[in-house]
Amino acid sequence: MTAQPVVSRHDLLTRYDSRAPRYTSYPTALQFSNAVDADVYGDWLSALDPAEPVSLYAHIPFCDRLCWYCGCNTRVVNKPALISDYVDHLIDELILVEKRLPGRIKAGAVHLGGGTPNMLSRDDLVRLFGAMRHVFPFAPGVEISAELDPAVLTEGWVKAAAFHGLNRASLGVQDLAPHVQEAVNRIEPFDVVARAVHWLRQAEVASINLDLMYGLPRQTTADVVATLDKVLALRPERIALFGYAHVPWARPHQKLILDEDLADAAGRLEQSQAAAERLVRAGYVAIGLDHFALPSDSLALGLASGTLRRNFQGYTTDPHPTLIGLGASSIGRLPQGYAQNQSSEVMWRAAIASGRLPVARGVALTDDDRLRADVIERLMCDFAVDLGVVAARHGVSAGVFVDDIAKLESLRADGLARVDGDVIRLTEEGRPFVRLVAQAFDRRSEPQERFSRAI
Fold first, then answer.
1. Contact by Cβ (8 Å): 143, 107
2. Could you give the CA distance from residue 378 to residue 384 in angstroms, rounded to a whole number?
3. Which CATH class is domain 367-455?
4. All CATH 1.10.10.920 domain ranges in the chain, comma separated
5. Is 3.90.550.10 the CATH classification of the domain at 29-332?
6. pLDDT of 140-187, one tens digit each?
7. Lowest mean pLDDT among 2-6, 21-25, 101-105, 289-293
8. What is the pTM of this model?
9. What is the pLDDT of residue 78?
10. Annotated binding site: which residue ranges?
11. What distance in Å separates the CA atoms of residue 125 and residue 135, rounded to the nearest whole number?
């Protein structure tokens, strides 16, 4: 057997320092078009199975401050009346959706994202939960989660949310080094984070996730590890460690971050691997590309059982095939395809005011899309895929992947991936390059410059 050539990490990073989708969906949002509009979405809603629970996602596009690294659809708002009016429109959108449903459908999961959902007043939060429960009765054991900004969180808000069923919370931390916080316009002392965790624990919120980032401006490996050393004392059930996606052409406020303040591919990889090693030593299970969970957490259990999934919120165990998106820019996933609401809040409000579902674009799934989405999801979740098993699940032969496997030749030759018959498996060295392996099976890929860096 011929030994594989040893390729230095420097050479690998030079060779593969490219851009690729994050594959939180397939096809990606860049493939969405106005071929999916309000009428198409309405028909999709009408075809849902009333016996099959759905997930709900409500987007709250407001923040108290603008974080320069942010890639979300959000804006700074300090007018409670405007936020309350937005909730009025969310409730009206729920009513429009209800009119197209074939019957009463239960909600098995609810997620409030943003932006900053805890910008909602307690009264508006209660109104929104009430409207959701009216249109989609909550199933027993419903998972209710929210993304929270510790700096504007109050104990009263936590108590109100917990009373209405909040059982998972995700707190944005990113990095605790003052010079990094200054570079991204997010000043947040550790005490603020610890206080938020304390309130959530007191309210018996069962699972807490902390969002951290690497690759931020002026951030060093020592900063990343020091942040981990502090937050691990809080023993969160999950930690998400995202790589900063510098896409100033898509998010103009990121132009406030200087290119020269950002680490190169080698620096980013060093930061992510040092953090991963620290988390594993602390007893966390590595989940996919950028998540970590305690062994008892459902993410770790899902990884072990092969039921881990990937969606727009990252890695999840949400089993529901349908996601109903609510709010400006939100994306829904139905058996027929993806549908996205108007990204412009003004246009979203106008559509609802006219009595029309506010969907602006999306993509209808083909059989080939579903096949490739399955392959890509397994690679992103398990770092491996049995193409024969996936092909059989979709009623085709694994031979359809011959051209895709050929695209992996350089990655295989460099020791990043192994091909054993129908089984594709990333090596330990190759795991940071998983997005590039997944991209080999992407038949709809856009030009690279539209994506963030793969490493």
1. no
2. 6
3. mainly alpha
4. 367-455
5. no
6. 999 999 999 999 999 999 999 999 999 999 999 999 999 999 999 999
7. 2-6
8. 0.92
9. 84
10. 57, 63, 67, 69-71, 114-116, 147, 174, 186, 211, 245, 331
11. 16
